[in-house]
Write a structure and sequence with these properties.
Layout lengths: L10 H8 L14 H5 L8 H18 L11 H6 L3 E5 L6 E5 L5 H15 L5 E3 L8 E3 L12 H16 L1
Antiparallel strand pairs: 1-2, 3-4
Length: 167
Amino acid sequence: MSERSPAPGGLALVESLVNTVDLESGADSLDTAEGRARFGITEGELAQARELRESLRVALLAHAGHPPHRPVAPLGELLAAAPLFLTVAAADGSADLAPADARTLLSRVAAAVAESLVAGTWIRLKACEAVDCHWAYFDRSPAGRGRWCSMQVCGARAKMRRYRAKG
């Protein structure tokens, strides 16, 4: 739904996972083999991937100051099941957190969240304020106060609703 450029680094994975479902139409790309293959998940892992997606959405809504859209498993509890390990490059001593099992979506998401925490970008990944959208987007506004995935669509709709409510 958004015309914004993708989130930086590993957050692009988180953003694209959250955006696999269009809340307005109900279309879910994880329903297709191609959509699941994009994230390396099987049909048997679908329920877990959807649970992760919605827990991520709740965290992104919280980043934007919005309440949860529905009850979900706490994201911290889900990510606790995805161990990470510290790698240190012999050449320059640089360190990085990596998923213990890069084949699992949960581990890759945990590594992306950890990477973004270190980079200070986690809080900038948000979910759109519009209740029929909640699309994930990376807030690049200088003050970090973006509210909608698209000013032209969701922002314009919200402003029009407020205008009509006044009159």
